[in-house]
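Extended Data, panel c. Modelled sequence:
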Amino acid sequence: MSYHKKRPRKCDGFLYTVKPGDTLFLIAKKFSVSLNDLIKANPQIKNPDMIFPGQEICIPKEEPEPDEVPEVLSVEFLDRKGRELPERRGFVKLDKRTTVVVEFSKPVDEVFFLFIPKYEDNIEEIVLLESVDAMGEEVVEFEWEVPDKIKGYLFVIGCQDDVCGRSENFGVIRKRRRKRRRKRDNPSGLEEDVMDDFDYEDGLDY
């Protein structure tokens, strides 16, 4: 075997047979590898400017770039008028209809909104509230119809190409509403009972 027909001793990839008109530059471009990586994978080639038809060279595996995890940049809780909901003692006081707005560091395909009832370590009872097809967006919204008397922790997971990022846990609470009576005069001149809704006190214990 002539010197220029020698095969590489090992190849972490696959062998390619040089064709007329080929150069290492064109081969590297054809297989989407860098020219430097192609040269390093073929130490038997003493002069990279001289390759010959019929010569077998190694095409190295393209090293995949580390997957960039979609980081959760922010999570906002908004009421029906788009106002940010208040927080007290580490718990966001939810509205009956709360919009959760999540911003990611990169586009995501799917977003999962999950809820841990009562205690942060109560992972055996995690509830999937909603999965949203994000369609490559970086900002995703979830309209949450919040039940009465709820307390726990919400967290968000965003995924892109099977790589997922998780938010921290956010304490959330919504008190059961109670009613009070007041009297008013109706057009007939008789008094009648009127029920007014109002929230529980701000304390976090039920």
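The two ends are 86 Å apart (CA to CA). This feature is highlighted in the accompanying rendering.
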